[in-house]
Design a protein that fits this description.
Helices cover 32% and strands 24% of the residues. It is of the alpha+beta class and 157 residues long. It has a single domain, classed as Alpha-Beta Plaits. The protein is globular. The structure holds adenosine-5'-triphosphate (ATP) and 2-amino-6-hydroxymethyl-7,8-dihydro-3H-pteridin-4-one. It catalyses: 6-hydroxymethyl-7,8-dihydropterin + ATP = (7,8-dihydropterin-6-yl)methyl diphosphate + AMP + H(+).
C-alpha cells in the first residue's frame, strides 16, 4: 500500500481554542504522518456570523487510510474531544475537515472531497497557500494560490 497525501483543515471557536487544535493534531498523529502544519490564524466567523472568532490552520500529511476510513478517524477524534454538534456552521470546540485526499474526487452524502466549500473560504485558502500554494484542485483545475487570488479579487468588487 502507498501512502496518500492529504490536507486537513482544523478550526475551533469554543474553549481553549489553541489547546483544542494542538490536541487534535496529537490525535491525528496516530494514523497520519504529518508533513507540514500552517500557522494558526484568528478568523472572523464565516456563514453564521453571530459567534466567537475562530482559530484555523491547515495541515498536510500522508496516510494509509482510505478516504472513508479517514473520515471515520477524524469523526472519532471530534467525538473523543467531546464535540457537540449544535447546528450547521455553528460554534464548535473542534472541527476537522478533509480538504483534499490526493487528487481524489468523491461526491457522496457522507463524504465530499475536495471539501465543497474550500474555494469560498479564506480561512482555508490562506493557510493552504502558506504550506502548498501550487497544489491543484482536482475539480476546479486551479492551484490553491489561483483560488486564493480569485476569492480576494471577488471580495473587492
Ligand atoms: N470533506 C469532508 N470532511 C469532513 N466531513 C465531511 C466531508 N464531506 C462530508 N462530510 C460530512 O459532513 C458531516 C458534518 O460535518 P460538520 O458538522 O462538521 O459540518 P460543518 O462543519 O457545520 O460544515 P462544513 O462541512 O461546511 O464545514 C460529517 O459527519 C461528514 O459525514
Ligand atoms: N472563520 C471560520 N468560520 C467558520 C468555520 C471556521 O473553521 N472558521 N467553520 C465553520 C463550520 O464548518 C463555519 N464558519
Amino acid at each position: 500500500m502507498v501512502e496518500k497525501v492529504i490536507f486537513l483543515g482544523l478550526g475551533s471557536n469554543l474553549g481553549d481554542r489553541n489547546e483544542n487544535i494542538q490536541k487534535a493534531i496529537e490525535h491525528l498523529k496516530d494514523k497520519i504522518r504529518i508533513a507540514k502544519v500552517s500557522n494558526i490564524i484568528e478568523t472572523e466567523p464565516y456563514g453564521f456570523v453571530e459567534q466567537p472568532k475562530f482559530l484555523n490552520c491547515v495541515l498536510k500529511g500522508t496516510t494509509l487510510l482510505s478516504p472513508f476510513e479517514l473520515l471515520e478517524f477524524v469523526l472519532e477524534i471530534e467525538n473523543k474531544m467531546g464535540r457537540k454538534r449544535l447546528f450547521k456552521w455553528g460554534p464548535r470546540n473542534i472541527d476537522i475537515d478533509i480538504l483534499f485526499y490526493d487528487d481524489c474526487v468523491i461526491d457522496t452524502e457522507k463524504l465530499k472531497i475536495p471539501h465543497p466549500e474550500l474555494h469560498k473560504r479564506l480561512f482555508v485558502l490562506e493557510p493552504l497557500c502558506e504550506i502548498e500554494k501550487d497544489f491543484v484542485h482536482p475539480v476546479l483545475k486551479k492551484s490553491v494560490y489561483e483560488l486564493y487570488i480569485e476569492l480576494i479579487s471577488s471580495r473587492k468588487e
